[in-house]
Amino acid sequence: MTGFAVQFILIIAIIYFVMIRPQQRQRQKHETALKALKRGDEVVTAGGIVGEVIHIKETSKDGGANRLDDRVTIKSGESRLIVERGRIARVTSSTGSSSSTQIASSPE
Length: 108
Prior knowledge:
single chain, five-stranded antiparallel β-sheet, 5 strands, elongated
């Protein structure tokens, strides 16, 4: 019976370190990128719209608790869109940054 308990605990530990922990790190990295969002950054929304940040309107004055509700105005083509900061899927490039996370498309 103790062998089964040890195996069960081992399986739970493997699941935690292979699935849950990397997902927590990825979420934390994404939230950090959203908090560091600034004017001029190129972003992709959850709906797939690519645009450049032109204005950020913070909803909370204390700088704090829920910054994901802030309104971000992006310019995509000739249109200006207002989206919530939490709906930005990724930041593809930022101004003044030497390391860009843009993916170069290969010709087919």
